[in-house]
Amino acid sequence: MERSGLPFVTGIVHEHITMDSFEDEEQGQGGSDEWLDVDDDPSKPFLRPVRIYGSRLARDKDVIAFEERAEEREWDIDDHKIEVLELQSRYDTDLHWGLSEKQVLKNRKHYGENFLQPPPKPSAFLKFFRAVIGGLNALLWGSAFLSFLSYGAQYIYTDRISNDNLVLGCALIVVVHISGAFSFYQEFKSSRIMESFKTMVPRSCVVFREGSRAEIDVKELVVGDLVEINYGDLVPADIRILECQNFTVDNSALTGEAEPQKRLSVCTDDNPMETKNLAFFSTNAVQGTAKGVVIRVGNKTLMGRLAKLACGLDSGPSPIAVEMNKFIMIMTIRSLVFGGVFFGLALAIGFSLIDSIFFLIGIVVANVPEGLAVTFTTILSVTAKRMAKNHCLVKHLHAVEALGSTSCICSDKTGTLTQNVMSVAHLFFNSAVALADTSEFVTGQQFDMQDPGFAALANVAALCSRANFRPGQEDIPVLKRTVEGDASETAILKFMELQMGNVSRYRVNFPKLCEIPFNSTNKYQVSIHDMSKTSDPRHLLVIKGAPERVINLCTTILNGNEELLIDARQKEIFNSTYVGLAKLGERVLGFADCRLPLDRFPLGYKFSSEDPDYLDIGFRFVGLISMIDPPRASVPDAVSKCRSAGIRLVMVTGDHPVTAKAIARAVNILSEGNETIEERAERLGCTVEEINPTTIKAAVVSGAELKLLSASQLRNLLRNHTEIVFARTSPEQKYIIVDAFQKLGYIVAATGDGVNDSPALKKADVGVSMGIAGTEVSKETADIILMDDNFSSIVTGIEEGRLIFDNLKKLIAYNMADNIAEMYSVWLFMVLRIPLPMGTIAMLLTVLGTDVLPAISIAYEKAEADIMKLRPRNPKKQTLVTPQLLSYTYGQTAVLECTAGFFAYFLTYAQSGWLPGDLIGIEKKWHSRSVNDLVDSYGQEWSYEARSQLGLTSQTAFFVAIVLTQFANVICCKTRRVSLFQKGMRNKKMNAALIFALALVGALVYVPNLNASVNLTVLRPEVWLAPLPFAFFLIIYDEIRKFIVRNFPKTVVGNHLDT
């Protein structure tokens, strides 16, 4: 047990606190009095100045809210502020009798029906169609069209009809459908946001019409209806509360606050999100009853606005989609340029117009990496599956790389950074503060039950409670048990169960005789117990509640075995402790007890909760217990990793600024030594106006302050403060914050679990929802779901995303090399007019056959270095396809592979009597069926059939050479900068893929009938050795290139060679 001395000393943030600003939640802190004068005006909103470029933003009327989008404006209504009679007149209703049937029809026509109208959604067929024609598939469709066009032109205009182009076109169509179907399947369970909202909509409600009470379907409700809400009901519409009894609602899905919120019949705030006389559509009534009038229905409710905002948003293309679009544009332009150049060249050197067109089409098609679409989608899928094993479920494949590109995370607090469960954090007894264990895995921390101070506090905490464990949970760990009771009492019950053992059995010994439940007026709970089984039979009164209210009823304070009169010294200790705990964002409750004198309250006395005559006896104050939703143990380390990776982490929560700041400090979002302007001013003992704002890098901004900032002022705030916490934000404000970061050039990931988070999740480049605590709405809106609700899983996802960007660059370098080498062979075939080096089917066999598994195995390559130490990539400078990468593929690897291919090609001809020089310019005669006496270099005559067989052998040799040099290429592509000898061949998937590809080539070459079906033939063994020197040279050359890149990165040569 940790104890701190007197007075309470911590690294507390000294803010201006209004205790009632904690929403008077449950038995929460009450207003100020003689004990704790925390605020002269408890109704004053929690506002602090914000510094931007040295100017103070006070609450000036000249400062305007955002007007960039109508949807981003705050929910501007006044139904909660106007008088009841004016409200009655506005909606033509009677607040005693309800609406008439005639008025119901009129209001329904005027204000609309009470259901959420879903937006039109694309059909499954349209989604599949988009998957088939989108992205890289668009290039393949173009190539397929050109292939069919070439085949059709051959059929019409020439007598040499080859089926190669027809086969190519059909193969490409099959490829795009496979790739599209795969993408469609992966994203099959895409957004069903409106259906998710519907699951939260109540089905029936109690309404008063024409003086009669009736239960009707929620859809029949109209504006102006008088409704009744009871404990357990879902609120059927947005309602202005007219009367209520101890009415509490759970707004967590809308605001992110874990604590239930008290509702009243009076307006407490101009902001409709903050006032207590409104209850919102689909929130849950967790206590009491209420009667109110409907002011908004259907799409016009707050929930409806969230639905509309979330469904109507278009987050735009993902970062990888942008890169793919650039790649498609580059390849299209290059294909057309190369095709155009060689079309003109073909005409210039004497080819006919129709043959020149064939060359144009061939060059364009050959420049398109046909296999890239399949391998690209597969690599994303492989990475997504690997992330799923780390509790990161990817819904949309493009989100994989987008998460790796993230430069800013806008994180929710409750359930994401915290455990989403209230826990006892501190105890105050014997005039000192003790620290409780708030970790997710409590280590069995025990307080001394023999300590009189703790024993008295534990006794009151155990007895003065209405919370109970649900029966039948004896074998379940205490912290996992379900409790019937509110969040604060649940935390105390579990804590006391760990300390005392069986609390229920303990309570049986001291039966409850009378109880005064907590209410918002008294701000305390009282119970009286029968103590006849003890040595002191006097009745025991126990009380808990708002600390300043409880201690007002006390005359003494317990310190060990002593009861001390409450004097100025004790007041100082109490005040400093109370303020200190409150400023840590913790909910503080005070506890006291009293033995009732027998002369006034003899045994058998009938106590009354309606007319209590026992509250005037001076009580004994025994201590304080504070609670908080504590941070997850793994979050601080995850935050540190994000910071070292250059990622900005911003908290955006609907919770109170004090609580938000405390959690931000605890998890290091607000780092140690980085003060807000208020903290700096308090430390220096000056006003905020005297602080140089340019030296302040941390800020806590409330929703009320955010509302006063223009778009440009908000962006200035984001630029000039490296650590920011946004608190008390509305759903629209979360969306605005994400949008502002995006306009500053950040790639934003937003996390959340509630309905209130859904607009921001949809707007962000990557929306991340919680899998356990997350609502269905947030899960359907998100791109990625954290199945363990652990923020640290995001770090794993970012690392995978960064790795995949590197691996995709390697994939492009690998996939494009043989494509370009084959394109070069077409060029030389056309320019040198030699026999065809490589057939179309052989080209397809490389890009869609032998290349595929080695390409996919690149996804299993591990990071070359600690990529989480690097800054996020700049999407404007660090693109997927760079000039250096194109230079590497077009000018280095492809040239070497093409050279290897021609070496094997010419070697095969030379073995049969055709020297290279004699093959140049012979193409027309070589392919002529009428020439059967063509003479080789040694005077031998060759018939057409013999030449065709030799040509098939040489094309097979070229094919084998390309495949073998591609083996060397994929080995080179294992790393971009690190030496292959340092990385090694530890990628078992790649090793297996190479063995499989080699076996596939062997089968294609040597299996009878199979080789004939793909226009290949048997090769002599020595031909396989021909490309090996080139393969080894490629590996050696690439090692030299990487050495230069590593050691001379800033030189012209080093920069040019860095892919």
Automatic annotation (TrEMBL):
The entry's keywords: ATP-binding, Cell membrane, Ion transport, Membrane, Metal-binding, Nucleotide-binding, Phosphoprotein, Potassium, Potassium transport, Sodium, Sodium transport, Sodium/potassium transport, Translocase, Transmembrane, Transmembrane helix, Transport
Protein name, entry field: Sodium/potassium-transporting ATPase subunit alpha
Region (Disordered): 22-41
Domain Cation-transporting P-type ATPase N-terminal positions: 78-152
Membrane topology: Multi-pass membrane protein
Assembly and oligomerization: The sodium/potassium-transporting ATPase is composed of a catalytic alpha subunit, an auxiliary non-catalytic beta subunit and an additional regulatory subunit.
Domain of life, per lineage: Eukaryota
InterPro entries: ATPase_P-typ_cation-transptr_C (IPR006068), ATPase_P-typ_cation-transptr_N (IPR004014), ATPase_P-typ_cyto_dom_N (IPR023299), ATPase_P-typ_P_site (IPR018303), ATPase_P-typ_TM_dom_sf (IPR023298), ATPase_P-typ_transduc_dom_A_sf (IPR008250), ATPase_P-type_domA (IPR059000), Cation_transp_ATPase_P-type (IPR050510)
